[in-house]
Design goal:
Blueprint lengths: L1 E6 L6 H10 L3 E4 H11 L1 H11 L12 H8 L4 H25 L4 E5 L14 E6 L2 H12 L3 H9 L4 H7 L2 E4 L6 H17 L3
Parallel strand pairs: 1-3, 1-4, 2-3, 4-5
Amino acid sequence: MKVIGITGPTGAGKTTALKVLSALGVAVADADEVYHALLTENEEMRAGLVSAFGENILDERGKIDRKKLSQAVYPDRLEELNAITHPYVVERMGQLLSLAEEEGKSIFAIDAIALMESGLSRWCDETVAVLAPKELRLRRIMVRDNIDEAYARRRVDHQKPEEFYREGCSWVLENRAGDTPEEFEGRAEALFRDLLLGSC
């Protein structure tokens, strides 16, 4: 089975790229979705987060409030968060990869903002960085996450620089400021078709 890794900073268009892969019949796994599921399902990970960041990250039901957790993490404690959560996310992604193999899937795609930092990239035959201009990403996450510009800028400013992804990945998929959604999707499909055909 061929494994393709998709990475890049938040707001660059990874979700759209993953949808294109899914439409092409590829089995896909979104590390962000896995992480969010684990926040509610995995008591051991929850306990680790509460120990590190305090009970103020919990809601009135004792569940982790993602917005409160995010506010506790940014701008200076992202590495601490990752050290706690990455092992659980990697374990679950490994289970999904094994399941895809058992089901006879020929190609599996992983979408992970921390593809390289978490070690998930070691499973990948090809890695694709999805990149977009900083100000475009900023506007997108303000709308997507319903946050103000100051908070969005803190998040964007504390992510890896573009050069990190360009140097670490085998392919780069540009989401340009003037692109329509259709233009970006077309560019993504052209690249992924090349990668898929190359796997045959």
